[in-house]
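Supplementary Methods S3. Complex input for the iron/sulfur cluster-bound model.
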Amino acid sequence: MSKTFKILRFDPATDPEPHFEVFFHEPKPNDSLMESLKDIRDQQDPSLAFRYSCREAVCGSCGLVVNGDIALSCRTLIADLDSDLIVVEPLPNLEIQKDLVVDMAPFWEAYRLVEPYLQPEGDVPPKGHLVEEKDMETVFQYITCILCACCYSACPVATRDGRYVGPAALAKLYRFVKDPRDKRPFASLAKVDTPTGAWGCDTVFRCNDVCPKEVRPADGIEGVRRKLVAGRVMRLLGRKS
Ligand code: SF4
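Predicted complex, serialized as C-alpha cells:
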C-alpha cells in the first residue's frame, strides 16, 4: 500500500526556511524507513540528503525524527509505524546541513571534552591492561553506545543551552570513571563539575527513553555526580580522591 512521506527539506544555499515536501511511495513488506528513504532518493529525487551506513544499528549515523519520535531509520519498520502518513524530520538540537543531515559538531565537541579513552597508570604491561570480566559488569551498559546523538537531540537542557555537555558524553565519561583500569586524576573531572556539565541535567530521563541501545545515559550522569560529590567530601576530609 502506498504511503505518504512528508519529509523536511532544507538547503541553506538556496532555501530561506526549512519546508516539507511530500512523496508517495509504496514500501515493500518489512521495509525499514531507511530503505524507503533510499527508494525515494533513487526513484524520485536524487537530491534528498540523509545519513546511513551499516543498516543494523551499529554505526549510529541514521538518527532522525519520525512521526514525532526520535529513532534510527534502520531500526524503524514502516509497518510498525501503523500510519499512512510518515513525517520525517532531522534530529533536533543540531543545525541542519541539508534536509535530514545535521551538523554533529557540538555533539563531538562535548564528546572530546570528556576525553573518551582509557587513561591507565604507567606503561602498557606486556599482556595489556587486563581486567576481570566481573569488574567490567557496571561498564558494559555504557560500552554499547553507538554515538547516534538521539539522546542529545531529545534532551531539553541541550535545547535551551547549547553549551550543555549532554547525556552521551557524560555517560561515556562515567564508563571510564567506572573502569578499574582508568586512573585519570579527579581534577580532570572538574570540566564537568559545572552547570553546563553533570549538574546541568534536569533528570527527566528523555535520554533513557529514546536511546536505541538501552545505554540509559541518565544513570551515567547520576554516577558522575556521585563521583564528584564523593571527591569533594574526600577533599574536605583532607584525603586524596
Ligand atoms: Fe545514542 Fe544511546 Fe549513545 Fe545517546 S547513549 S548517543 S542515544 S546510543
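The domain at 3-102 is CATH 3.10.20.30 (Ubiquitin-like (UB roll)). The chain has two domains: 3-102, 105-236.
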